[in-house]
Amino acid sequence: MHHPANSQRQRATLVIGVLLLCALASLLFAGMTGSVAVPLAEVPDALRQLTNGEANSLAASLLELRASRALTAFVTGGALALAGVMMQALLRNPLADPYVLGISAGASVGALLALLLMATALVVDLAALAGAVGVSMLLYLLARRDLRGGLALEGGTSMLLLTGVILSSACMALVTLMLSIAPEGRLRSMIFWMIGDLAGAPLRLAPWLVLGGALLYALRSARAMNVVALHAEAAATLGIRVGRLRKGLFFVSGVLTASAVTSAGSVGFVGLIVPHACRFAFGPDHRVLIPAAVLAGGSFLVLCDTLARTIIAPQQLPVGAITAIIGAPVFLYQLHRLRK
């Protein structure tokens, strides 16, 4: 007779294993695909050259160029999907996504202000981070009571949601104002930043550290998230420190969103549809859902970015436009299934 816990563990291992293979396949596909394709036969030799620290052949140079962009796409997609899972657990609302609380709108204000003042790329990133952190702090101050409380869950989350929507609207008004006074030459880069774009996004260590830390926190809180999702009212009596969990979810998802937006601009839909799709495919258990969403979100954004740079090559599209074109119909389908 099979023990249910063992079969669950085996299933979880299988799911994560398959998604890991998909993630590696998506990165390999991104490396091989472009206006100049790298044949599969040349990949092992090119990888060997790269591990030795020398890119002598064209294949190795292309892989090196594309790998840094693909890895940036992966870490951004993973961060957005994980932030989406946490936001949905925090607000107990399957329609919540990382951008719903206005954190990315705050980042947009910071970044566009820096672009308007002709700042360097590093200053633009720092300004985006400062904008995201500023809005998070403001949101926390305004909704502090609701985040602490564990009892009036529904009222608290709707209050937090409303505050976020209003802050987001205010930020977007500032963005519109800046776009209207921006000189012609800077308008294109500002709009690309708004839609979400990975062209020229450098491969940095910081987003990986943020994603790793957030993933550890999320996995440690997975059991508590399961309890709150199922028995919100009784969670405190079951030994869950609801106020502390909600504060943690709020801050960690805020940092993830800020990190993703700073890397790639406002890439929409990843944090909304990927957690949904994973919940639909693998069930609502956060212990499986969290790593599954990170791997699926990363792979999804890598594939979208590969499409964005190859669909009308050599011209490149902003990746945010591709995720929206794919995401909107997928999300409508998911909504339809939910109602059924």
Describe this structure in words.
- With 340 residues, the protein is an all-alpha fold.
- The protein has one domain (75-339): ABC transporter involved in vitamin B12 uptake, BtuC.
- It is built from 14 helices and no strands.
- The chain is globular and about 65 Å long.
- The two termini are 35 Å apart.
Low-confidence stretches: none
User: Mind summarizing the main beta sheet?
Assistant: none
Number of domains: 1
Q: What name does CATH use for the topology?
A: ABC transporter involved in vitamin B12 uptake, BtuC
Helix run count:
14
Which oligomeric state applies? single chain
* First and last CA, distance: 35 Å
- CATH architecture term: Orthogonal Bundle
- Tell me the structural class: mainly alpha
What layout of secondary structure does this protein have?
Blueprint: H1 4-32, H2 43-51, H3 58-91, H4 103-116, H5 121-142, H6 144-148, H7 153-181, H8 184-195, H9 206-220, H10 222-230, H11 242-264, H12 270-282, H13 286-310, H14 319-339
Helix pairs in contact: 1-3, 1-13, 2-3, 3-9, 3-11, 3-12, 3-13, 4-5, 4-7, 4-8, 4-11, 5-11, 9-11, 12-13, 12-14, 13-14
Comma- or semicolon-separated keywords:
single chain, 340 residues, mainly alpha, ABC transporter involved in vitamin B12 uptake, BtuC, 14 helices, globular
